[in-house]
Amino acid sequence: MNSLRFHEPVMVEKVLSYVLGIRMNVFVDCTLGDGGHTLEILRATRDTLVIGIDIDREAVAAARERLTSSGFPGRAVVLREDYRNLPHVLARLGVPRIDAAIFDLGVSSRHLDDPERGFTYKGDAPLDMRMNPDSPKTARDIIMNSSEAELERIIREYGEERFSQKIARAIVERRSVKPIETASDLVEVILKAIPGRFRGGRLHPARRTFQALRIATNDEISKLGNSLQNAFYLLNPAGKLMVISYHSLEDRVVKGLFRELEKTGNARVLTKKPDRPSEAEVARNPRSRSAKMRVIERRDLSW
Ligand SMILES: C[S@@+](CC[C@H](N)C(=O)[O-])C[C@H]1O[C@@H](n2cnc3c(N)ncnc32)[C@H](O)[C@@H]1O
């Protein structure tokens, strides 16, 4: 899989602008992916230790190889871990506090560009979509076993798909006749469910449903608030937590949590409005177009 193009990191200059002025002994990249942000932090600093974690085995293997060959001996620790376990991971490493952390949520190009993993409506792979291959539930399981009401909710909430009812109905009808196994089976069902005049838009008609299934398969929203809060509590004073999200539900979680933390008086939100990629970046890397970055700074430890 290492022949795939590396995922292009989003809003790198912005990320650097928040952290380069602060004391930074330890930086944690909670969504290492191909190591794009980590590599930029390593290049821009001299002594910072970067701990990079990712749930995806292939991403971890590729990032490890890439970082090793980039020549930062002893400065990068790469682990296959779930960011939901961050406090335990750091405790195991003997790292009590950190100076900055980034969560770059959503999907990696590694997932989208590899048709074998079933993330993309462009391929014909089994509908897997798990970022963590050890987790028990695949997208196929959701498609084949959820009730129509649950499918409708997933497609509407996570996909913001206006034809969620029609698509959920069509899935249930089709699976009662024949299992839906592959990405192209699902695309076929979606195309039939969507009214003809809405099939020719700029974005593929199956895009939103695939996004919804990915979010549900990986349970991407439910523990996000907790994970971010845990990371925040690990920061040193003046430490910063940066979150890049690509979905309005994720951004709502981030915004709500940051507001609550600020109310305690011990945190300052540095982005009253989220930072967005520049037009030039979106032109160069269209996958950045929905990115929103919010940043919070810890002020003291008086809890
Ligand atoms: C948008 S990509 C990050 C790309 C990275 N910033 C880069 O520049 O290469 C998001 C990554 O988060 C990882 N991920 C998703 N859920 C995770 C979790 N619960 N714990 C750790 N990593 C997770 C995915 O496997 C994916 O590689």
What global shape is seen? globular
**How are the strands ordered across the major sheet?**
3-2-1-4-5-7-6
Identify the CATH homologous superfamily of the largest domain.
Answer: Vaccinia Virus protein VP39
Bound molecules: S-adenosylmethionine
Task: Provide the gyration radius in Å.
Answer: 20 Å
Q: What does the largest sheet look like?
A: 7 strands, mixed
What is the end-to-end distance? 46 Å
**Element pattern in H and E:** HEHEHEHEHHHHHHHEHEHE
Using the 3D structure, state the CATH architecture of the largest domain: 3-Layer(aba) Sandwich
**Domain tally:** 2
Q: Any idea of the CATH class of the largest domain?
A: Alpha Beta
The name CATH uses for the topology of the largest domain is Rossmann fold
> Helix tally?
13
> Which band does the percent of strand residues land in?
5-15%
| Tally of DSSP β-strands | 7
Binding site for S-adenosyl-L-methionine: 35-37, 54, 83, 104, 111
Family: Belongs to the methyltransferase superfamily. RsmH family.
Protein name: Ribosomal RNA small subunit methyltransferase H
Pfam families: Methyltransf_5
Question: What is the topology?
Answer:
Blueprint (H helix, E strand, L loop, with lengths): L11 H8 L6 E4 L6 H9 L4 E6 L2 H14 L5 E5 L5 H8 L4 E7 L4 H5 L25 H7 L2 H12 L4 H12 L7 H11 L13 H11 L6 H10 L1 E11 L2 H16 L3 E3 L9 H6 L7 E7 L5
Parallel strand pairs: 1-2, 1-4, 2-3, 4-5
Antiparallel strand pairs: 5-7, 6-7
Helix pairs in contact: 7-8, 7-10, 8-9, 11-12
